[in-house]
Design goal:
about 130 residues, four-stranded parallel β-sheet, alpha/beta, 4 helices, 4 strands, single chain, globular
Length: about 130
């Protein structure tokens, strides 16, 4: 126990690896970006899950991730009605919602719609449980 995690196998060779995190140096992940960067290699999308502070430090703390390009989502994608939690960032959204939008760009709208439907079902169940 103790010790650092071995991250050497996180990055898959033969893949275009990206990290989804809305930093100032992140490129907006959209169809225009995809046209410029797509090649024969599949994408590997890393999505840090945690609070903003934890997720923001991951790129700097893990040696293998320091050179991984960061991408962010376009503004105003989140369903701002009936949020499940208080967002501290203007463009904040749940991890599942962000994954849906990002994979929608990389893999197409069918996957995005499927994941956002799952998020909507979860959100409605939670809000119903809260009496909303």
């Amino acid at each position: 126990m103790g010790g650092l995690l071995d991250h050497s196998k996180v990055l898959k060779s033969g893949h275009q690896t990206l990290m989804l995190y809305p930093s100032e140096d992140a490129a907006v992940l959209n169809s225009g970006w995809l046209e410029k960067h797509k090649d024969e290699r599949p994408f590997q999308l890393l999505i840090p899950d945690g609070n903003w502070r934890q997720a923001g430090k991951l790129h700097y703390r893990v040696e293998e991730l320091k050179k991984v390009p960061r991408v962010t989502l376009a503004r105003n994608l989140s369903d701002r009605e009936s949020l499940l939690r208080l967002e501290t960032k203007e463009n904040g959204m749940s991890t599942l919602e962000a994954i849906g939008h990002a994979l929608g760009v990389l893999d197409g709208p069918e996957l995005r719609n499927h994941l956002l439907r799952a998020y909507k079902i979860k959100k409605e169940a939670v809000l119903k449980g809260r009496g909303a």
